[in-house]
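Example 9 (inverse folding). The structure is encoded as follows.
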């Protein structure tokens, strides 16, 4: 069982690296199998298609972010601290070992791949949206955030995070460009 999980994680790691540096169409299942050191047949045991593998990559990234979000929201700290911590953790995630959190190849997805990815990630996106909305409700109640509708603030914040995930710049550059937006647009004073 452990070997199976390790093999699947290795395949996902290799695919993540390949898709973050190459176009979707230029990465083949054969290339992924060779780079992961597994047979093509073994690869197809875990993922029936390249679309399914991409959906698993997105789901893996979103699950990781969901876990981080859940941990931060459970802390007994002010909403402003939670938001800043969430922002920092996302910057580390997007700029760290998972380059291009939502890899550039996603722009080239066919309608079939979009449907496959969408089915897998929609529950995660909805959970994240609702959790961040609750964070903004807490911040508005505490007087730390501007008094805008919490669900709209959550969408703006998620849009900012998505934009950050598409950048290929450094962590410091992300902080330099996006922190002023956070402080001047959402937070009070």
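The amino acid assigned to each position is listed next.
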């Amino acid at each position: 069982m452990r070997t199976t999980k390790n093999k699947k994680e290795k395949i996902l790691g290799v695919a993540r690296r390949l898709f973050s540096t190459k176009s979707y169409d230029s990465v083949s299942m054969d290339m992924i199998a060779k780079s992961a050191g597994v047979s093509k047949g073994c690869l197809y045991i875990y993922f029936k298609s390249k679309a399914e593998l991409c959906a698993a990559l997105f789901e893996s990234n979103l699950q990781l972010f969901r876990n981080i979000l859940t941990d931060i929201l459970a802390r007994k700290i002010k909403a402003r601290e939670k938001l800043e911590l969430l922002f920092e953790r996302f910057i580390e995630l997007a700029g760290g070992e998972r380059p291009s959190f939502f890899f550039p190849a996603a722009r080239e997805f066919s309608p079939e791949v979009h449907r496959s990815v969408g089915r897998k990630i929609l529950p995660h996106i909805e959970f994240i949206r609702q959790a961040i909305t609750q964070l903004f409700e807490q911040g508005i109640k505490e007087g730390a955030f501007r008094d805008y509708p919490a669900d709209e603030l959550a969408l703006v914040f998620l849009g900012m995070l998505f934009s950050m995930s598409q950048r290929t710049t450094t962590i410091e550059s992300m902080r330099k460009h996006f922190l002023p937006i956070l402080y001047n647009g959402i937070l009070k004073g």
